[in-house]
Amino acid sequence: MTTITFDPAAYKDTTRAQWDQAAGAWHGWGPTLEDWLGEATTLMLDAAGVGTGSAVLDVAAGAGGQSLAAARRAGPSGRVLATDISPVILRYTEAAATAAGITTVQIRTLDAEQLDVEPGAFDAVISRLGLMYLPDLPHALAGMHRALRPGGRVAAVVFSTPDRNGFFSVPVSIARRSAGLGPPAPGQPGPFSLGAPGALEQVLRQAGFVDIGARAVPAPFRLPRATDCLRFLRESAGALHQLLAALSATERDQTWQQIHDELSRFERADGFQGPCELIVAWGTKTRSHIAPDV
């Protein structure tokens, strides 16, 4: 197996470029994403206490489906700041808000580990399928903690363990094997890096949050056929493209075929149903606190 020294700066540069490239496709899959992530998103917004008048910071917002959902809850007296490392994908968030007639969503290109926002300016911080990809998660959570007013709440969605997320863990496993890569080293970012029981709660606690809780949410990824899931992954899954980047075009095509063959076992009479389980975790910034060291 190949051992690669992890370079956080290079990793983030690659991530930014890949999301810039995949932004249009991710936006195009929006209805599918909201069907898939809808229950977890609702729980996240509930846990973050998003309601009428809320000021919400969305970290690693992507194409912003959850940003718009938060804005609808907050209403005209609230506001949402959607942030992401990719400026291209944020433009889709802005366009979607305009198309929906929502005027309270703003966008700002920000690295989640460098949240240059006014301290104490937000009632809620949310992040959907973003935290597990951050190389310096403690620094990011410290920034989220600073952004909240005392008593404000944070909530996030991540994938649970690989064995409960076959629709994505199977392709990742095949891609790593094709690239000659072993499992990621402990502490490295990746889709399942926060999936172990209690892992997300622990990092929230270390960041200074209290009243912490979490819930697992079954979220099967449903599409008509395995071929549709393969198309979704080829168009949208930056993590897979990172793994396959060093392969030749022929090797990549062969790997995608292997992924399709394995995904086909999740096809049923009523369509493709890829196993997926999400974790929603939350916490509160105390009204009297000492900021954690980072």
From TrEMBL:
<feature type="domain" description="Methyltransferase">
    <location>
        <begin position="56"/>
        <end position="152"/>
    </location>
</feature>
<keyword id="KW-0808">Transferase</keyword>
<dbReference type="InterPro" id="IPR041698">
    <property type="entry name" value="Methyltransf_25"/>
</dbReference>
<dbReference type="GO" id="GO:0008168">
    <property type="term" value="F:methyltransferase activity"/>
</dbReference>
<dbReference type="Pfam" id="PF13649">
    <property type="entry name" value="Methyltransf_25"/>
</dbReference>
<dbReference type="GO" id="GO:0032259">
    <property type="term" value="P:methylation"/>
</dbReference>
<protein>
    <submittedName>
        <fullName>Methyltransferase</fullName>
    </submittedName>
</protein>
<keyword id="KW-0489">Methyltransferase</keyword>
<dbReference type="InterPro" id="IPR029063">
    <property type="entry name" value="SAM-dependent_MTases_sf"/>
</dbReference>
